[in-house]
Amino acid sequence: GAGVSQSPSNKVTEKGKDVELRCDPISGHTALYWYRQSLGQGLEFLIYFQGNSAPDKSGLPSDRFSAERTGGSVSTLTIQRTQQEDSAVYLCASSLGLAGENPYQETQYFGPGTRLLVL
Amino acid sequence: GESVGLHLPTLSVQEGDNSIINCAYSNSASDYFIWYKQESGKGPQFIIDIRSNMDKRQGQRVTVLLNKTVKHLSLQIAATQPGDSAVYFCAEIHDNQGGKLIFGQGTELSVKP
């Protein structure tokens, strides 16, 4: 079946502009996650959704970052007034359920990512 | 703070040999561990996972070992192939944290033909 999809695959923007990144999770997955991967770095948690609610936003770097999820499906990560340090690969993942619910339903499957370059 | 770290940043093996990638974690309360493979320009690909109540789990050509006494996780790849060349990440998660995966820095595996 279809995996997690993300769009755009690449985005180049100018400093100060706003960008929106989109994630389509695997059908039926209730949980959705956003991570960021900077050049040569590991993956950094940003936020996760259970349904349309975001119980944990602790990883968002600043108030310029926000995310929403509608209809328990598609999610959008918005970065306002982009800065050069925002340049990274933004990865989305989804899972059937959350950790602590049913064993192994918390396995997260990742999309291909959106490569963001802020000039 | 909490962290999941990898002992070796790079590993080079000969095609057909077995590979072992290691990972140390610092939080004994972690409940679930995952190995991901990431090829250049792609998102992380799930390989295998294990819960904290197990010490070994096998998949196709891969085995994950968990030693909770020394907080160590390893990924064994049998008969390594050129297609196995990638960066491998271990990650941990706590049952009470919903879905926040904590990743290690990654080990780059290079398979020589």
> How many whole angstroms does the radius of gyration of chain A measure?
14 Å
The largest contact between protein chains, plus residue counts on each side, is: A-B, 30 and 27 residues
Secondary structure tally, helices of chain B = 0
Low-pLDDT residue intervals, each spanning 5 or more residues of chain A: none
- Main sheet makeup of chain B: 6 strands, mixed
From the N-terminal CA to the C-terminal CA of chain A, the straight-line distance is 37 Å
| Main beta sheet strand tally, sense and closure of chain A | 7 strands, mixed
Give the DSSP E fraction of chain B (strand runs of 2 or more residues): over 45%
- Average residue-wise pLDDT of chain B: 88
Report the structural category of chain B: mainly beta
Number of strands of chain A: 11
> How much helicity do the residues of chain B have?
under 10%
Overall, the morphology of chain B is globular
Uncertain stretches of 5 or more adjacent residues of chain B: none
What proportion of the residues of chain A form beta strands (DSSP E)? over 45%
Order of helices and strands of chain B: EEEEEEEEEEE
Rg of chain B, nearest Å: 13 Å
The total strand number of chain B stands at 11
Features:
heterodimer; A: mainly beta; 7-stranded mixed beta sheet; 4-stranded antiparallel beta sheet; 11 strands; 0% helix; 48% strand; B: mainly beta; 53% strand
Concise account of the structure shown:
Chain A has 119 residues and is an all-beta fold. Chain A has no helices and 11 strands. Chain B has 113 residues and is mainly β.
Structure description:
The complex is a heterodimer of chains A (119) and B (113). Chain A has 119 residues and is mainly beta. Helices cover 0% and strands 48% of the residues of chain A. Chain A has strands spanning 5-7, 10-13, 19-24, 31-37, 43-50, 53-56, 65-69, 75-79, 88-95, 109-110, 114-118. In chain A, strands 2, 4, 5, 6, 9, 10 and 11 form a seven-stranded mixed β-sheet that branches. In chain A, strands 1-3-8-7 form a four-stranded antiparallel β-sheet, with no helix packed on it. In chain A, strand 7 and strand 8 form a beta hairpin. The termini of chain A are far apart. In chain B, strand 7 and strand 8 (72-77) form a beta hairpin. Chain B is 0% helix and 53% strand. Chain B is globular, with a radius of gyration of 13 Å. In chain B, the strands form two sheets. In chain B, strands 2, 4, 5, 9, 10 and 11 form a six-stranded mixed β-sheet that branches. By secondary structure, chain B is an all-beta fold. Chain B contains no helices and eleven strands. The chains are: A mainly beta (119), B mainly beta (113).
